[in-house]
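Apologies for my clumsy wording, but could you write out the amino acids of a protein and the tokens describing how it folds?
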Amino acid sequence: MKGLRGSGSRTVLAALAILLFLVPAQSAPAPQAAPQGTPGGRITYVLGGEPPSLDPHVSEAWFAFAVTNLLYDQLVVRHRRTGAFSPGLAESWQRNADATQYTFKLRRGVKFHDGTPFNAQAVKFSFDRILSPQTKSPAAAPLLGDNIKSTDVVDDMTVRFVMKRPYAGFLDALTLSYGGITIVSPAAVQRSGQDFGQRPVGTGPFMFKEWIPRERIVLVRNPDYNWAPEAQAGRNGQAYLEEITVRFVIESTVRTAMLTTGQADVIYRLEETDAHLVRSNQNLNVVRIIRPGTGSMMQVNTQRGPTDDLRVRRALMHVINMDEVNRIVYNGEPENAVGVLAPNTVGYTPEVNIRRRYPLDNARAAALLDEAGWRVGAGGTRTKDGQPLRLVNICFAGLHCRIGEVMQSQVRPLGIQMEVRALGQPANIQATQRGEAHLRSIGWGGTDAAQLLHFLYHSSNIGGGWNFTFYKDAKFDQLLTETTTEMVEAKRLRQIREIQRIVLDQAISIPIFYYTWMMGTSKRIDGAVFDQTNALPLLYNVHMVRR
């Protein structure tokens, strides 16, 4: 999907987002024809970093999911055109009347790469492993939440999930390969133990061959693959490519140079600063997608002074210019965010708009700071009770901190000092969770807003989770919880919109941009697309262009 601009495009996408949850899985239209290619060929796929592990249940690295997405399959996928829930490794499913049980009939004849059979026992093993305290799954477990009571084997090809409470986002969570909610080979995990992440075994279109650390990972075509999710892939059967060599190059300029010189066939991600170089080359393509989920947001700490004062937070909303941030840091490639959710996310509404609520207005921002008791003193810095108005922005070195530097220059004329503090992992997250930051940017992917909003804003996720705003309000918590359990879709969408309105009204998140993921591809190949749900490259249909 191209990066759409303009309020009309957003309205269409908002309507589509509502439609996604109204179309039943079994009524999806017949897929369009997929690209037809000749089997064979090898490509080089270059990532911006080396995966720490290819175990989807323990990884949280985006570069890992860009590989595991090729090795594993999901129970459920979304139709690539309509977004309807569609069969993956599950052929069909039923939900009981109060939405506390989901029963799945599994696809027969599926084998893991090690030759062992895919069955209900494997599904139970995978979900028990994801939710086990010993695994501590950093991506998959939060997406599932504390909702699953048990995963039960009904028979060899039937599995039932019993919920502690109705969970409206369950089917959506099952589609999230970037969250690691995938099925692994129990035999391989038991055989490899802690080394499973270096010897992964799934059911996907490609199989693991070798991993030479700091150099390459090699994947080969799965010769038995005949269970492709046609609603997503558009066809069935083996992948076209014989082999994929995955290389790791941190420097974006080097990745782009490899593409332009023919040393790479696909680079992911193509950085915004290099996109114009690829577009200007007649032998290359740029493939892009707005990632579903939240946009990039600057979370504002509501418990640490001076941003514990709503007037100070609202002053920041009036003065932060995301258009300038995007032009300086990202060459204007992303679309400016106007609210919490990206426009291709269920529950998005164009009515929640930062610029309608907080137009850029330095005079209004100054008046709010004056009202809060922060007066301009000697040297132009605002002070109150002898203390300067000083904010700490914790970030990762590079573009992440560059965002803070631009904002630093924007707030300085208002008499606000901002420290841009670069920290690596795990110190970055730990310092933020301790409340040391006034400002910390974050964004999360996903097509269903309720669970995303819950773990970004519910007070139970303060300190040890992802609520970097530290906002705590009992009624707001109740609304966040009700949204994850509400099964009447119209009411649920109203709740999601109300959450967005509160976030903006309380000035706890400053929207920056919608994540725009890009691939650079060589024209010697065709068929490289993004998974519309996960915003990860799908290479199943990639084939060599015969000239």
Q: What stands out?
A: Residues 426 and 432 are 10 Å apart (CA to CA).
